Amino acid sequence: MLRLFKIDNGLIKEMDSQREDLPNQILKADWIDAHEPDDDERDLLELLLHTDIPESDEVDEIETSARCFVDAAGIHVHPLFLSQSEGRHMTLTVACILQQKHLITIREGDLADFRLLRMRARRGHVECRSPAELLVTLLDQKVENHADTLEDIHRQLEGVSHLVLEDDKSELEDAIGKLARLEDSNGKIRLCLMDTQRDISFLLRHLRDRTDQTETLREIARDVETLMSHTTFLFDKINFLMDSTQGFINIEQNQIIKIFSIAAVVFLPPTLVASIYGMNFDVMPELKMGLGYPWALFLMIVSGFAPYWYFKRKGWL
């Protein structure tokens, strides 16, 4: 699917794409957003814009030389974006090709950053004067989304912190699952921020003659540094809560083992007494005593109560 946008009086506006006039509209568009393009759309873009449209496996390569480079078609940047599905975060790579008159984005899957940018464009809230400035705006939107997501993770961590440290009736196993998901989300955001740092550094080298864009890129870089520090703080908090949760689980398990250990010690002396008088020897004077049975019961009760009293006095119970 192709979405076309045009810069009009300093604002980015979405064009009404007509299938029969699509080639002319592509040439007039300042931003071509190719969302899961089919083979015909890929061929058309390659023909009109004189560039190769990368496949998804080419976009996902991790080498810096494959993610940020310049060729005859323009400046190529493949930033990582954050996506969410079924309550879990994942990363998706978007291929961005910056030309003199066009910005081309090729992506798989729906991304919140692009939805929000389209919504803001429809309301006339996206100021833009060139495709290069639009690319910088897209990166700025991406970083703002990461900041909002980090704030949401922090709020969820506060809830888990109350669950672990203050709620006596909480299920600690559930807290471990929540912490694992939050740690995974925080790690993916940090990965996206590190990728953004690399993209900004690359663009600063190749857009140095465009003062407005370079200044905005430097501001974004400072925001990224701040968010990187925040992810480190969240990692430390998650690790603390994870260690605390495992510690509380170990304490609960130790309490259970303690109960079984004390029960075994308490019942050991009565068992010994019962074993002695259960032996079948001919010479056992107590067997002929009239009060032999009550005497054996008394010994078992006393021998069982004695260790219990001792443990209670020591404060072990």
TrEMBL record:
Record function comment: Mediates influx of magnesium ions.
InterPro entries (alphabetical): CorA_MIT (IPR050829), Mg/Co-transport_prot_CorA (IPR004488), MgTranspt_CorA/ZnTranspt_ZntB (IPR002523)
Organism superkingdom: Bacteria
Chief localization: membrane
Membrane protein topology class: Multi-pass membrane protein
Coiled coil (UniProt feature): none
Alphabetical keyword list: Cell inner membrane, Cell membrane, Ion transport, Magnesium, Membrane, Transmembrane, Transmembrane helix, Transport
Intracellular or extracellular location(s): Cell inner membrane; Membrane
Family statement: Belongs to the CorA metal ion transporter (MIT) (TC 1.A.35) family.
Record flagged with keyword Magnesium: yes
Gene designation: corA
The protein's name: Magnesium transport protein CorA
Pfam families the UniProt entry points to: CorA (PF01544)
Lineage, top ranks: Bacteria, Pseudomonadati, Thermodesulfobacteriota, Desulfuromonadia, Geobacterales
Bilayer-spanning residue ranges: 259-279, 291-311
Reaction(s) this enzyme catalyzes, per UniProt: Mg(2+)(in) = Mg(2+)(out)
NCBIfam families: corA
Keyword NAD: no
